[in-house]
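RECORD TYPE: inverse folding
INPUT: structure tokens
STRUCTURE:
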């Protein structure tokens, strides 16, 4: 797995294959350059990587490489050159990457440069030619790489320091070659979410994530995290609904969610607006109802918003939100940019504002300690039933936190709440099932759907609400105007 920790924009560039019919041709198909303040060269076929300063530019053209080798009196055959770089600022520094399959060919080639018996641990330094290089035997007899740095005389001291202190030590071979530092997708996007005037920029993070997509395809976990970040930032821009839906579907497939494409009205207890009546009828006799949400699916918040007024009329007085960090929300009555990460999404902010307009007490309950689930349940209880045992509470949690199953090990928040306070929550899942049908809302008939589920809940909802449907059902056609 690649650990990712960047400080700047990362681009993924395939190196252009410049030699037809070369033995290196196939190797070049599996090489990558990741660009940051530093650059990373990776070759998946050779299991080799290293880092070098970010002001180098790749020059893949064969004629450029031949000209450079002649200019520097480096009598090496360019067909063995994997990559060539030079700085795009003064002073001119050049870098070559040569690959040889067998030791005999390599030794013969480099003997012309006066390089003999070079071992992995000992860089070769030629202060007359202003040259530094290192021989790198690859793991599992994959061959030999020579990493070469070249400069003019007045820059050689800097070149030597750069290679001995930074570039050569960064070399990785074998199974560790992909152990490089690139930032995670959420951190990368967040770096571009704020303008200089501290206002939120909604478009730039999505743009950067689109550009960086290939950098996050190295393993499933990294790609999973990338899709969550992309979906989250897409969710904040209403005209990206169709693109976001593709992101969500890819994420669901990657995470082995139930294939809900087969679900139609025959799998449902009730559909569309009647779902609202069904849910209200179930909620009326409860003390606490817990909805979950996919954090990058704003339609999950739309359903809760549609129910808020009727829930309040049924005696519910508290809205507990995992997404909320703001302790002054009840005094202010609306969110600001620092109220939370997910509250920056428009429907999340509207949900809170609507709850305050109706009269709810709104609070955040999340906790990031080792006992997160237990602390979440404790925070909900302390802000509600501990103060007033007769009150009623609405909870909006993320994904699996409403999982009710009680185990002998670690329970999720809903299970902890039930087990500790002996109050059985009504749990309503919105993440398990998904369908591309024309059904906007549906209650799933779990008797005729697959038994295997990611979480245990009382009610499973298919939620395909969009902004237009929400406005119609909420009797506020001008809501989005």
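DESIGNED SEQUENCE:
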């Amino acid at each position: 797995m690649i650990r990712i920790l960047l400080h700047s924009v990362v681009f993924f560039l395939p190196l252009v294959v410049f030699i037809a019919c070369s033995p290196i041709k196939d190797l070049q198909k599996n090489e990558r350059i990741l660009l940051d303040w530093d650059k990373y060269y990776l070759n998946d076929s050779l299991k080799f990587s290293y880092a070098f300063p970010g002001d180098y530019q790749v020059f893949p053209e064969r004629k450029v490489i031949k000209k450079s080798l002649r200019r520097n009196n480096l009598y090496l055959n360019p067909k063995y050159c994997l990559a060539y770089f030079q700085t795009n600022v003064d002073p001119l520094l050049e870098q070559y990457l040569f690959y040889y399959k067998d030791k005999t060919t390599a030794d013969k080639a480099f003997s012309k440069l006066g390089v003999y018996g070079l071992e992995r641990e000992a860089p070769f330094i030629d202060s007359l030619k202003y040259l530094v290089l290192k021989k790198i035997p690859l793991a599992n007899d994959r061959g030999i790489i020579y990493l070469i740095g070249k400069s003019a005389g007045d820059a050689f001291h800097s070149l030597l320091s750069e290679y001995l202190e930074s570039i050569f030590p960064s070399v990785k071979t074998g199974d560790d070659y992909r152990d490089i530092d690139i930032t995670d997708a959420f951190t990368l996007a967040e770096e571009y979410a704020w303008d200089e005037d501290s206002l939120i920029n909604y478009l730039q993070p999505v743009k950067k994530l689109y550009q960086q997509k290939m950098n996050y395809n190295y393993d499933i976990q990294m790609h999973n995290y990338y899709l969550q970040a992309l979906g989250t930032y897409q969710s904040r821009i209403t005209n990206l609904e169709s693109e976001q839906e593709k992101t969500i579907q890819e994420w669901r497939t990657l995470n082995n969610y139930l294939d809900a494409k087969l679900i139609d009205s025959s799998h449902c207890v009730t559909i569309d607006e009647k779902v609202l009546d069904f849910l209200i009828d179930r909620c009326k006799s409860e003390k606490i109802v817990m909805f979950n949400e996919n954090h990058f699916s704003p339609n999950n918040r739309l359903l809760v918003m549609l129910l808020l007024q009727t829930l309040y009329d049924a005696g519910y007085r508290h809205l507990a939100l995992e997404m909320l960090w703001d302790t002054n929300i009840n005094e202010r009555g609306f969110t600001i940019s620092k109220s939370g990460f997910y509250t920056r999404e428009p429907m999340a902010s509207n949900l809170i504002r609507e709850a305050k307009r109706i009269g709810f007490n709104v609070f955040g309950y999340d906790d990031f300690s080792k006992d997160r689930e237990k602390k979440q349940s404790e925070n909900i209880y302390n802000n509600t039933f501990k103060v007033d045992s007769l009150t009623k509470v609405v909870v909006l949690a993320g994904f699996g936190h409403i999982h009710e199953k009680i185990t002998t090990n670690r329970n999720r928040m809903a299970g902890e709440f039930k087990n500790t306070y002996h109050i059985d929550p009504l749990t309503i899942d919105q993440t398990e099932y998904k369908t591309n049908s024309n059904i906007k809302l549906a209650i799933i008939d779990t008797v005729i759907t697959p038994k295997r589920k990611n979480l245990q809940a009382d009610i499973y909802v298919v939620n395909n609400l969009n902004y237009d449907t929400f406005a119609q059902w909420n009797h506020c056609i001008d809501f989005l105007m």
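NOTES: The chain has three domains: 11-176, 188-254, 263-480.
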